[in-house]
UniProtKB/TrEMBL annotation:
It is an enzyme of class 2 (transferase). Residues 125-263 form the N-acetyltransferase domain. The keyword Nuclease does not apply. This is GNAT family N-acetyltransferase. Its EC number is 2.3.1.-. Keywords: Acyltransferase, Transferase. The keyword Disulfide bond does not apply. InterPro entries: Acyl_CoA_acyltransferase, GNAT_dom. It comes from Streptomyces glycanivorans. One of its GO terms (molecular function) is acyltransferase activity.
């Protein structure tokens, strides 16, 4: 499949016809946008916009989404803007409306086939599947060590997903003895060919030893067992070069624009 065909398939299955990513969320198309709404600890935001969106209509859609989310008392929501979304000035319109652009990521996709080969782990490191609250705590600790950010929302979302829909979610943590040093998640989307990879991060002292690749291969094996054809990642500048070397194809860029209603 050519890159433009893959991008069109991704837009159709994962954005225009997106499924809720958690038990407390709701996805709907309203006007020219598809949005997800949940609670304060869920991901809230715009996933897709109509390809023929005009600048004038974009301004009214932006105002409508600000009204929708702020009326629910949410502290923030995101407009997930892809480089090929129109109109061309949509990013500038979002900024003018009070959104803040976060670092741009690369949208990468690869076939599941060929990505699931076993990878040798460093001596003393093992992988543990996250299936209970104790495993979630280890995963959150590894995430905080890798990224330096608070893992409270990650804890909430993971516990909720494991409780409500464990068959479409997988998480794994790499353990060096009793210490969690890396973790990653995968969200599988029934009715699509895509499994999304999220959160792959390793504590600084353990980087460059193959743990990231091992976590990817582990999740690819799970995706293959469930019949998924493609792996999808929104990759940071740190991860994108690794994924390209592992056979992922860049389909474009995506920038989160975040609207915060509270400091």
């Amino acid at each position: 499949m050519e890159a433009d065909e893959m991008l069109a398939l991704f837009d159709h299955e994962m954005r225009e016809h997106a499924r809720p990513d958690g038990p407390g969320t709701h996805v709907e198309r309203v006007g020219d946008v598809v949005r997800q709404t949940g609670g304060a600890d869920d991901w809230n935001g715009v996933l897709w916009t109509a390809p023929d969106l005009s600048p004038g209509h974009a301004e009214s859609e932006i105002a409508a989404q600000v009204e929708h989310y702020t009326a629910r008392g949410l502290g923030e929501f995101e407009w997930k803007l892809y480089a090929h979304d129109g109109p061309a000035e949509l990013g500038a319109l979002l900024t003018a409306a009070g959104f803040e652009a976060e670092p741009t990521e690369t949208l990468l996709v690869a076939p599941v086939a060929g990505r699931a080969a076993p990878v040798e782990l460093p001596e003393g490191v093992r992988l543990r599947n996250v299936t209970d609250a104790a495993g979630v705590e280890l995963m959150v600790r590894a995430h905080e060590l890798a990224f330096g950010t608070d893992g409270s929302r990650l804890r909430h979302r993971t516990l909720a997903r494991l409780d409500a829909d464990p068959d479409t979610f997988a998480a794994v943590v790499a353990m060096a003895g009793d210490e969690p040093v890396s973790s990653a998640r995968m969200e599988m989307h029934p009715g699509t060919g895509f499994a999304g990879l999220w959160g792959g991060g390793t504590a600084a002292p353990w980087r460059g030893r193959g743990i990231y690749r091992a976590l990817l291969a582990h999740r690819a094996r799970i995706a293959a067992l469930h019949g998924y054809r493609f792996l999808q990642v929104d990759a940071t500048d740190l991860s994108a070069p690794i994924l390209r070397r592992l056979g992922f194809t860049a389909l474009g860029a995506t920038t989160p624009y975040v609207y915060r209603t509270a400091p």
